[in-house]
């Protein structure tokens, strides 16, 4: 059995643990896939590198209301794809080469699973052990159990960005983040998009106002087929892929549609099962999440296992890179300072959906805030401010954007912020900051200058519209 001081399983956020404090430790990093993990290779980064040109194209197509006639004459998919992946592949290869060059680091390029507590076995049968092990092995695509998933032309987010050609038509299955972002990408680049979702709602975890507004905007851009659950995919006589879907709403008929490509984006599951957690008696809950305490220590029958840590999608309620990175910082400290444990602050986890319009959110939805207020004997105040009501919104002729804020009427503290509209992923940041540092809505609004006439004035006005102490 090979012994190390530390084993890290997964090279996504797990790879960022190795700070200078680790240079005297004998470390193994286990990564069977492409070095760098999901975000770099098949997730956040390449998707946004496609989102940006798609957004530029949509802005051109929508510019006529500003008296500017522009068009999307042609799209060079191959050069876009090669530009994106020549950058990304170089970073992944460079990261692997760098780690392999370090005297104190061994990279093991195989899957591992537990055979006993603290003992992992590679696919080729080698056993490795260490007093400290970090489990950072992420999540993977979950496919519905229907026929046709293995047909050529049926893709997931892992493969669709490497297509040889921009498809003329695509059916996107799912109504979450991944489906939304790829509908925007392909629609912006000129593919005919049909989105199929099981429920009648898009972005189900978002505030109702935002989800409804997004549904309206999505229906204006592509063909939206809601309340339809995929039942199968087959090859049609004309060579296209034929998708069938049952109606989950009784008023609808069974649906059939054809396209060149099908993208299945029906969720992701944690990779804990690939670790054989039973052999180490590790606690697993929900969709397969490893149970951890607030210090990221992995639990076994409810108690932390000495020297065993987890972070990111394999254990987190949030499948988000900034959360995986924050948890990695916690673990990086705790592994080498076990007597001075830090916890990860999960109070105000924001996220953004990079569509056109963008969506950004932090904290409670209005529905959650009403329940919370009842339980805590307080009241809430809600303000919806249209982007179109501020000067920059006039410049944009905006009729889409909303900044919706929810605050505790008595304390003035923000409970939730939900934006849809241009640059929402950036506009929300002062609200995340104010919530994180305990500032009231009035303090955020009046404790600083807001640049005039920047779009951020919509956030200032939304804050001033809340019925909280200090306003007036
Ligand atoms: C298409 C897409 C777009 C996304 N966009 C965003 C975004 O814009 N913003 C955002 O915040 N988040 C986004 N995410 C989510 C984000 O990518 C993940 O939350 C994040 O990358 C998780 O990091 P991780 O370190 O936990 O896991 P990963 O980066 O997935 O790393 C885990 C690694 O472990 C390896 N592994 C798995 N099982 C084993 C095993 N048994 N043995 C050894 N190794 C194993 C895997 O090969 C993998 O490389 C996106 C995800 C996808 C799929
Ligand atoms: N911008 C970002 O931060 C970003 C971008 C992409 C992904 N992510 C992360 O990745 C995670 C996974 O994303 P996702 O979109 O795959 O999952 P998701 O859980 O958000 O959405 C899955 C969707 O598929 C639908 N669905 C499930 N089974 C179906 C079926 N049989 N037929 C039709 N529809 C079906 C569900 O109703 C749901 O709308 C997200 O939760 C998010 O945390 C984040």
UniProtKB/TrEMBL annotation:
It comes from the Bacteria. Residues 4-328 form the FAD/NAD(P)-binding domain. Keywords: Disulfide bond, FAD, Flavoprotein, NAD, Oxidoreductase, Redox-active center. The keyword Repressor does not apply. Its cofactor is FAD. PANTHER family: DIHYDROLIPOYL DEHYDROGENASE, DISULFIDE OXIDOREDUCTASE. This is Mycothione reductase. It comes from Kocuria atrinae.
């Amino acid at each position: 059995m090979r012994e190390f001081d530390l084993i890290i399983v997964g090279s996504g956020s797990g790879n960022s643990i190795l700070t200078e404090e680790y240079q005297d430790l004998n470390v193994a990093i286990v990564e069977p896939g492409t070095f760098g993990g999901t975000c770099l290779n098949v997730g956040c980064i390449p998707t946004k590198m496609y989102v940006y040109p798609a957004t530029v194209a949509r802005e051109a197509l929508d510019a006529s209301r500003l008296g500017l006639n522009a068009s999307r004459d042609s799209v060079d998919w191959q050069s876009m794809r090669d530009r994106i992946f020549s950058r990304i592949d170089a970073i992944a290869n460079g990261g692997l080469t760098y780690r392999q060059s370090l005297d104190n680091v061994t990279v093991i390029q195989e899957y591992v699973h537990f055979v006993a507590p603290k003992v992992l076995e590679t696919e080729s049968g080698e056993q490795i052990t260490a007093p400290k092990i970090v489990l950072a092995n992420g999540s993977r695509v979950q496919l519905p159990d229907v026929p046709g998933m293995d047909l050529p032309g049926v893709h997931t987010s892992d493969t669709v960005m490497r297509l040889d050609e921009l498809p003329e038509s695509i059916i996107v299955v799912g109504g979450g983040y991944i489906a939304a972002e790829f509908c925007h990408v392909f629609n912006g680049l000129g593919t005919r998009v049909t989105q199929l979702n099981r429920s009648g709602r898009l972005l189900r975890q978002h505030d109702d106002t935002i989800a409804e507004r997004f549904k309206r905007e999505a229906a204006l851009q592509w063909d939206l087929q809601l309340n339809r659950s995929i039942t199968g995919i087959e090859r049609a006589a004309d060579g296209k892929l034929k998708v069938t879907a049952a109606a989950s709403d009784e008023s609808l008929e069974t649906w059939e549609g054809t396209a060149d490509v099908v993208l299945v984006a029906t969720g992701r599951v944690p990779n804990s099962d690939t670790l054989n957690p039973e052999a180490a008696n590790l606690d697993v809950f929900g969709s397969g999440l490893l149970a951890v305490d607030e210090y990221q220590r992995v639990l076994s029958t409810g108690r932390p296992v000495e020297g065993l840590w987890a972070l990111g999608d394999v254990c987190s309620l949030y499948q988000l890179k900034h959360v995986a990175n924050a948890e990695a910082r916690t673990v990086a400290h705790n592994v080498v300072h076990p007597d001075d444990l830090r916890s990860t602050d999960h109070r105000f986890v924001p996220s953004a959906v990079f569509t056109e319009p963008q969506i950004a959110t932090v904290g409670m939805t209005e529905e959650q805030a009403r329940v919370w207020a009842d339980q805590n004997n307080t009241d809430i105040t809600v303000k919806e401010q249209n982007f179109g009501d501020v000067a920059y919104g006039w410049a944009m002729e905006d009729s889409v954007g909303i900044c919706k804020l929810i605050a505790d009427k008595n304390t003035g503290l923000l409970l939730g912020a939900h934006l849809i509209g241009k640059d929402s992923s950036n506009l929300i940041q002062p609200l995340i900051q104010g919530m994180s540092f305990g500032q009231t809505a009035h303090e955020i609004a009046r404790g600083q200058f807001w640049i005039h006439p920047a779009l951020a004035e919509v956030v200032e006005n939304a804050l001033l519209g809340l019925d909280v102490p200090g306003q007036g």
